[in-house]
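Narrative summary of target 7.
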Amino acid sequence: MEVEMTEEPRMDELTARLGIPGLTFRPARGEEDYAAIASVINRSNEADGLDYTVTAEQIANRFAHRTDFDPRRDTMLAEVGGRVIACGQVGWHRETGGAWIYRLYVSMVAEWRTAGIWEAMLEYCEHRLRQIGAGHQADGPRFLSTYADDLQREWIALLRGRGYEPVRYFYEMVRDRLEDLPPTPLPPGLEIRPVRPEHYRAIWEANQEAFRDHWGYSEPKEGGFQRWLAHPNFAPDLWQVAWDGDEVAGVAINIIDEHENAAYNRRRGYVDDLSVRRPWRGRGLGRALLVLSLARLRDRGMTEVVLDVDTENPTGALRLYESVGFQPMRRSAVWRKPLAEK
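Modeled conformation, tokenized:
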């Protein structure tokens, strides 16, 4: 459903034009809305067959220390009769290659997906991002950007209908046997050390540096570091960090989401990040960190481990994961279209 708007997007105007009894739109009000936002995301994921959840604490973490969006103007909740049925958010960043990326995402509970609200919220988010983009220098390519799992067929249909195309694919991969890990020694001269608080900054910076080669990279902000430290699943005792003297050579950031595991009655761990800095690549360090991570998660009672990978990763990560026994179980994509295209 196409909804024409004034230059300054207004939620009350959108409400009037849709004309659905009891429907209102508003921005998120802060902490009081975090549980409702998490519930909508979880119900939307469940409707699409996605087996992961978020908590109110994780939503609070997402909203903290941000410079790339204003919650008062860049979030959007849809309510019917006072009950939140959808949530949207926009933000932006600039890739190191020069592209301006204007991000959006809208989650919608299943029972309201055919009422035209989802489409209208998507268009509203695009309108808001064009307004933000008008305040930026037009000195590089500019794209509206979102993401979709292949299982999210209704969301994908909306994106295709508004001109988005998939530009990069990612696999979620799993290794569901943790008893038969291959022997994989560390390269000579490197050692694994227990992680201490005084190491956090060096580990964060090393991990960020290693990902500079990756598609879509943007310079990290201090707020990202603070959110990382405060994340509910922050668990340095699960990490594997390789040192060469005083230098961090490679990092495996591992997590266990106990809330999610309880919701799905499983024992799953995640390798959230795996990175090796350039001077230490090509020596088997990534493989060693990965196998050590599998062993650590196994020893903590996990029976499977999941990770994500860019299918076109320039450092050969997909081949590495396959060689250690990981198999693709789901595919997702980043979807984009030019900012100026309506």
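DSSP finds eleven helices and twelve strands in the chain.
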